[in-house]
């Protein structure tokens, strides 16, 4: 179903309104959840992940057309698309997010987005659009976020945004707009717009009179980096504005501020004037304009006397947050008079200012300060000025030159909750450093040179939840090293040089849920001493890139994780790279709730079939980059809940083990760069829940063995085979290098079309023959049928030599019964004394009729056929004469007497071939010809009955005079 774009914007028909309402209803119900998730199918250049089509950085020059209609996200960023055509997104009715960032788009056809009525987010950043034409976004009635920054837009048509009635965010920054009237058009058409960014354009003036009837809901406005010469507001055009960025341009333009009525910006709570070049008088006027509402002020990269501006801004009674980044040499050193008026500040950001010195009383006036950022400076020690901040909750000292920490550095900071000391040059911490930080929750010490902890965490830090110590030079963890951290839940120790884990080194960490120990020098000896036994609530343990190695699969007397029943994620190390290894079969004992197990690249050569007996809940297993070779179905029998399986580069020769592995819940299978060449249908059928299959880098065989797999790739709408259109054949040699999906599979299967053609042709011919036969030869067929029956009956009875019971069997039609009973019977039985057999009188009751007929004919010396028109039409009479004829010709006895009651033309006898033959060879009796000479008729009949049966068939026995 497609909705036509009406270029003249005529009124929609009732039918089109109906369809629009229906599709909008589907959007509100989230159409992606109403249909089966289409994870399946093979795409030529993209892949599907969580109902999002990912086509990132695939060198596309046009929008692919094989995207399933149920996707809700479509990422086409980092490609080479130059034009968006009207049919590109025609079928993607459920699409909610479209990303076209970093392409070469210079042209978008009108109506190209018309069918995307569920779309909420559209990203057109970093393209080459010059103009936003009329009705460009027609149909996007549910769009809430539109980004078109970093293009070359110079012109915005008057109706460009007319359809975007739900739009709340518009970013049209870094373009080439020159007139504020463009902004007026935007605001006038977007009544619900809340965020507008038009930074870094070529706007030189800002006059409020050009923005009459603008959006009353606009809350966030960014007009920074424009070369404004004047900023004039003479009317209350932004009554709801709370966030305003006026940051200056890199050009040396001085902006003149003309806002004389303070109520025009009376709700602005966040103001950014970073880099703004303005006379100090206008700057004061600007700050006075927001004097009653300002809470947060950003003055980064200022060119003015910064201390004076700080003093001016700190007189605003409502202001609580001040950001002063990249003001090199304008604030350093930080002296006591810089913040003397800032008594109400709760947050100061002084990052990236090259600060080397801070006077001891510099922050003394800041009695209510809660957040202080001093990162990315040149401090060599923790400034003493911070000790006076009794209410400080967050202190950021990252990326400085601090080399040591003193016992008094954080004295009196009893309210501190987060401390960042990362990326300094600290080599050691003392036991007394954090003694007063009872409320500390986050401590960042990563990326330093710490080699020993010196019992710094033995003293209680009862509220510490996150401790980051990674990327240091720790070599050992001593017993009770962290016993004061009873609330710690996250501990990172990766990328150190840890060789020794003393027993009890994690004592006290009963609430720890995550510990990261990758990239150290831990060996299997450290694991076997039970160091993890006390971490009963641990959820994640990462031991990647260590030196753990086992020689065989024999059971361990003390499995290293036997007490970690709550562990959900385990990553074991990359072992000695050049040495093959094993895993003890009870290595995972105790991990009854393990969900994710990573054993990638540990040089395994085998896996014991009982390895996963202890992990029945396992859902994700990564065994890639090993040398396992063969896998047994029994290995997977305990983990029936497995959903994701990674088996790349493990020298697999086949996936046949999946047939009996019973992985019915498996949804994701990655088996790149192995040695199998054929994927059978049994493998596919054994994983009915499979949504994603990645088999890149295998050596496929181009023959009929892969026919079912090829059909899966092309026709299956459930399982997505990643990059299937690039699978290359290595066998046979004459097809090496050919794409697997280019294989001609017609010779692999019977041509169903041809079979249907032949079958249909034969049926039609048979129907024609039957129709012709029935129409022209039906009587001959009937005659042949009865002739065959008579032949059977004759064969059955020809050897019967029993004496005749009757002199004659009378074959007649019931309509001729009056003549038989009134004329024939009195003459032959009463007058001449012959014994006659009549069917109504002498047939045996209950016996089949055909048997009675046969017995009567063969039990009589003669058979008298009383022939009339009715006789010829009778089925049973025909059978009687057929049986008598076979007796006549088969036994060569004179047993048949023909008596015609009516004159019957020869033409009417044509269907009765046998009777015509008899008439040509034998004389017959005719009752009509007898006329008044009936005595001669009866005499001739008497003679016929009295003749012997042994005479030749060709001898004429009866003569009837005219």
TrEMBL record:
Matches recorded under InterPro entries: Leu-rich_rpt, Leu-rich_rpt_typical-subtyp, LRR_dom_sf, TIR_dom, Toll_tir_struct_dom_sf
GO molecular function annotations of the record: signaling receptor activity
Annotated keywords: Glycoprotein, Immunity, Inflammatory response, Innate immunity, Leucine-rich repeat, Membrane, Receptor, Repeat, Signal, Transmembrane, Transmembrane helix
Domain TIR, chain residue ranges per copy: 804-945
Gene3D superfamilies associated with the record: Ribonuclease Inhibitor, Toll/interleukin-1 receptor homology (TIR) domain
Compartment(s) where it occurs, according to its Swiss-Prot or TrEMBL record: Membrane
Bilayer-spanning residue ranges: 20-43, 747-770, 776-793
Record GO biological process: inflammatory response; innate immune response; signal transduction
GO cellular component: plasma membrane
Topology class, membrane: Single-pass type I membrane protein
Family note: Belongs to the Toll-like receptor family.
Protein name: Toll-like receptor 13
Native source organism of the sequence: Channa argus
């Amino acid at each position: 179903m497609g909705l036509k774009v009406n270029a003249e914007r005529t009124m929609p028909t009732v039918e089109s309104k109906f369809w629009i309402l229906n599709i909008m209803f589907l959007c509100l119900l989230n159409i992606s959840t109403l249909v089966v998730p289409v994870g399946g199918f093979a795409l030529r250049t993209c892949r599907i992940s969580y109902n999002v089509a990912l086509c990132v950085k695939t060198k596309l020059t046009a929008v692919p057309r094989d995207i399933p209609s149920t996707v809700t996200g479509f990422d086409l960023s980092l490609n080479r698309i130059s034009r968006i055509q009207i049919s590109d997104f025609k079928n993607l009715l459920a699409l909610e997010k479209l990303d076209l960032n970093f392409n070469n788009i210079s042209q978008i056809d009108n109506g190209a987005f018309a069918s995307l009525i569920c779309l909420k987010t559209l990203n057109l950043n970093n393209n080459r659009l010059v103009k936003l034409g009329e009705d460009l976004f027609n149909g996007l009635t549910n769009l809430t976020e539109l980004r078109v920054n970093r293009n070359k837009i110079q012109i915005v048509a008057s109706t460009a945004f007319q359809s975007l009635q739900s739009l709340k965010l518009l970013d049209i920054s870094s373009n080439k707009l020159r007139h504020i009237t463009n902004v007026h058009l935007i605001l006038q058409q977007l009544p619900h717009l809340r965020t507008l960014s038009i930074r870094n354009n070529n706007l030189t003036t800002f006059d409020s009179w050009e923005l009459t009837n603008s959006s009353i809901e606009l809350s966030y406005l960014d007009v920074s980096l424009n070369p404004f010469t004047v900023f004039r507001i003479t009317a209350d055009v932004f009554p709801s504005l709370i966030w305003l960025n006026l940051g200056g341009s890199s050009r040396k333009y001085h902006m003149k501020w003309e806002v004389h009525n303070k109520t025009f910006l009376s709700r602005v709570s966040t103001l950014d004037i970073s880099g703004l070049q303005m006379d100090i008088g206008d700057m004061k006027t600007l700050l006075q304009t927001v004097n009653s509402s300002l809470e947060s002020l950003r003055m980064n990269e200022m060119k003015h006397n910064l201390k004076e501006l700080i003093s001016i801004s700190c007189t605003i009674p409502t202001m609580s947050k001040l950001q002063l980044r990249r003001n090199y040499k304008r604030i350093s050193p930080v002296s006591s008079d810089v913040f003397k008026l800032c008594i109400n500040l709760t947050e100061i950001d002084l990052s990236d200012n090259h600060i080397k010195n801070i006077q001891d009383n510099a922050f003394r006036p800041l009695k209510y300060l809660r957040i202080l950022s001093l990162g990315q400076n040149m401090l060599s020690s923790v400034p003493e000025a911070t000790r006076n901040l009794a209410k400080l909750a967050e202190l950021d000292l990252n990326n400085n030159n601090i080399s040591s920490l003193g016992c008094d550095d954080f004295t009196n900071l009893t309210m501190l909750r987060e401390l960042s000391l990362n990326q300094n040059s600290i080599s050691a911490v003392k036991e007394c450093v954090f003694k007063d930080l009872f409320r500390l929750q986050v401590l960042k010490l990563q990326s330093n040179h710490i080699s020993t902890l010196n019992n710094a965490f033995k003293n209680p830090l009862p509220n510490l939840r996150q401790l980051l110590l990674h990327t240091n030079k720790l070599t050992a963890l001593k017993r009770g090293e962290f016993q004061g951290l009873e609330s710690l839940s996250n501990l990172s120790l990766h990328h150190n040089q840890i060789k020794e884990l003393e027993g009890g080194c994690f004592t006290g960490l009963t609430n720890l849920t995550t510990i990261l120990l990758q990239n150290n020098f831990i060996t299997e000896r450290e694991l076997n001493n039970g160091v993890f036994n006390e971490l009963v609530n641990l959820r994640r343990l990462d031991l990647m890139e260590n030196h753990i190695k086992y020689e065989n699969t024999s059971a361990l007397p003390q499995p290293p994780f036997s007490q970690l029943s709550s562990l959900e994620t385990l990553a074991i190390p990359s072992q000695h790279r050049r040495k093959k290894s094993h895993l003890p079969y009870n290595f995972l004992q105790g991990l009854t709730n393990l969900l994710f197990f990573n054993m990638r690249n540990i040089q395994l050569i085998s896996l014991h079939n009982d390895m996963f007996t202890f992990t029945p809940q396992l859902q994700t297993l990564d065994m890639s980059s090993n040398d396992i070779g063969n896998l047994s179905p029994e290995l997977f029998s305990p983990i029936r809940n497995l959903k994701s399986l990674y088996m790349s580069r493990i020298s697999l020769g086949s996936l046949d083990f999946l047939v009996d592995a019973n992985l019915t819940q498996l949804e994701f299978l990655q088996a790149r760069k192995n040695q199998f060449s054929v994927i059978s249908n049994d493998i596919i059928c054994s994983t009915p829940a499979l949504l994603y299959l990645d088999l890149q880098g295998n050596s496929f065989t181009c023959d009929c063995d892969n026919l079912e797999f090829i059909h899966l790739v092309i026709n299956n709408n459930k399982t997505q085979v990643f990059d299937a259109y690039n699978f290359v054949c290595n066998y046979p040699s004459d097809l090496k290098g050919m794409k697997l999906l280019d294989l001609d599979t017609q010779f692999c299967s019977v041509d169903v079309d041809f079979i249907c053609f032949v079958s249909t042709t034969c049926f039609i011919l048979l129907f024609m023959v039957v129709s012709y036969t029935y129409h022209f030869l039906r009587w001959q067929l009937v005659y042949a049928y009865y002739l065959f029956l008579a032949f059977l009956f004759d064969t059955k009875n020809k050897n019967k030599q029993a004496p005749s019971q009757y002199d004659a069997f009378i074959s007649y039609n019931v309509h001729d019964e009056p003549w038989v009973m009134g004329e024939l019977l009195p003459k032959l039985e009463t007058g001449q004394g012959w014994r006659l057999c009549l069917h109504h009188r002498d047939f045996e009751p209950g016996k089949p009729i055909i048997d009675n007929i046969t017995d009567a004919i063969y039990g009589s010396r003669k058979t008298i056929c009383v022939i009339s028109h009715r006789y010829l039409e009778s089925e049973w009479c025909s059978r009687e004469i057929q049986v008598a004829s076979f007796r006549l010709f088969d036994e060569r006895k004179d047993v048949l007497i023909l008596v015609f009651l009516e004159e019957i033309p020869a033409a009417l006898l044509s269907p009765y071939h046998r009777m015509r033959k008899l008439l040509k060879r034998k004389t017959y009796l005719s009752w009509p010809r007898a006329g008044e000479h009936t005595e001669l008729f009866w005499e001739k009949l008497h003679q016929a009955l009295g003749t012997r049966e042994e005479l030749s068939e060709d001898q004429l026995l009866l003569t009837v005079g005219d």
